[in-house]
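Changelog excerpt

This revision adds worked examples to the README so contributors can see how folded entries look when concatenated. The first example is reproduced verbatim below.
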Amino acid sequence: MRSKFLMLTVMLLTASSFVFAQDDYAPPQNYTQPPPPNNNYRNPRNRRTQKQQPEQVVSGKPSGYVSLNFGAANPMGNFGNVSGTTGYGNYAQAGNMYNLSAGIPLNHSNFGIALMLGQCYNPFDLNSYMSNFVNSSSVQATLAPATLNSSTGTYGPNPNYSSPGYSETHFMAGLFYTYPMRRFSFDLRGLIGVMACSLPSVSVLIGPATAGDISDEFDIIPNQSSVSAFAYDLGGGIRYLLPIRRRSTCLMLDADILQASTKYNVTDTHTQYNPPLNTYNGTGTITSVTTSNISGTQPISLVTISIGIGIQFDTK
């Protein structure tokens, strides 16, 4: 029994040595040992095994923004009317605008708060105003004899006094709604606030056909350089998330309706010279000065279209 056990043990050892010999075979006779590794040599990386950076995923969650926008401010309604001559105001032309705005969704929702600080400028159509003003019946009835007796009168602005332009500064806050769609976000907002408006001053010179002579001067100057009023804004826009700066930069296209109603109080001073004042040598005397006050309400109504760049952020 013992001899059979010894024989079985020898056979198992022999078989196992044969198996290991297949895995760890001896090198061929002409085999030479490889040189030691060069520590300065850098083995090329296997592209298949190289760890790839995970692709950034565009969030579908509602996002907020802070942006700076520039664009056009186009007058609507009576604000751009160029036919009125009995009062003061209107005659606004297309201008420019810029604003700093923000939209902040709350509690992971599509709703939030919106803020806007902006500036608009609209030139005053001085040429149309002067033409209508001088040819109105109320002004014609007050002109100096030298102007009335002239076959053709000349008129123009006084560069020392004319400041033809509306400058509107507004600060507003309100509600904000956003709807994300991959890289795009569609925004709506409604805001209320205050607008400070700088009103134009106008000085019109009228004289005979002789160059340089002035018979009448009308100075129409607001008693307050800036007036304030309640304002509101309704607008919307599209944001596009750019694949730069860790996906936080966005381009914006916005459209808004901005409206306010300001009260004005201006002083109209009519100065007559007879004989006509010569602007070159200063000859001429003042024969009469008439002062009147004009008050009323000036509607400010603008459609603004702007493009901008902003920083977009996800709500926490």
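The second example, added in the same revision:
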Amino acid sequence: MRRSIAIAALVLLSAVAAHAQLASVYVTYSPTHLSNVPSGTAPNGQTQYTSFWASGIGGGVTVNFLPLPLITLGWDLRGSTRSGTNGMDTVLGGIRLGIHPHVIRAKPYIQASTGYLGTRTFNQSSPPGPSPYTNHYFAYEILGGIDYPLTHFIDVRMIEIGGGKVISTGPNTPGLFTLNSGLVVHF
């Protein structure tokens, strides 16, 4: 009896895993708004702050470790860059929950990520200092989006919206807001 149950469970899990997409690679257009970013010092020694949009390219990979018919749970590693001044770079990793309702084709998801945020701004110091003025942070971001399948293995990332902050105890903590769109390829 136990052996029959074990074989049935193994067959069921194998069928789920065979149908599931275990990994995804994506590329996105990634405009990011950064706020309260230090950009130099005033003559009195106070830090100057700026806010700006950095529109760049992003991408990443998601590996699903729990691929079930209605949900998937996976690890996501992503990065984005906008070279030059004003610019920024991110490398974030976290956990992603995807929902695959059978009544609609769209596949919503939510994820929480932490990692590196680097910024480059025009140096607003007085007297002028070397430009760009760079900062490096440990940050978090909560993201949610909707992927729409074109084929069995290609989706359009219709929209992804995210918001987060630098993990800091300071009074003027830099924040970030992202609005992404792109293509996803499943394996």
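Reviewer comment on example two: The radius of gyration is 21 Å. Residues 40 and 73 are 42 Å apart (CA to CA).
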